[in-house]
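My current task is to audit a protein record that another person submitted. My question to you is simply how this chain folds and whether the tokens agree. This is what I was given:
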Amino acid sequence: MSSKLPPRHAKTGNAIDTNKLDRVVAEARQASDQRALGYREQALKLYPWVCGRCGRDFNHANLRELTVHHKDMDHDNNPPDGSNWELLCLYCHDNEHQKYEEHLAAMAAGHAPKGAGRSTNTTTYNPFEGLADLMKKD
């Protein structure tokens, strides 16, 4: 009869408490989900339901496909004014993170162009265009 030995830490050789590890991971995921709900709800109230890159419109039926992107890539930086957020569709959000990962890889390999930073691509769509004229009292 064989008994399964608990996994051991690679450096110390001590047994790893997998139940504790599972608890820590579950708590971290729950905290992350709670944080995301908070800033997502705020961002959806602050900004029009439009992708900031491709300009795709969203409504209640497809709102789950609209995500909150952190401009500085720090998911803990959530100022209440939403200045670190932009709403992006799933596809543009994935693309933005892919570009960032490629940029980091290029910098690590020493291939980044001089003065390269985060992408300066911006959308040409302005959801507030003409708002000032509409708000003028006649």
Residues 18-111 form one domain. DSSP finds three helices and two strands in the chain. The radius of gyration is 22 Å. Strands lie at 66-70, 85-89.
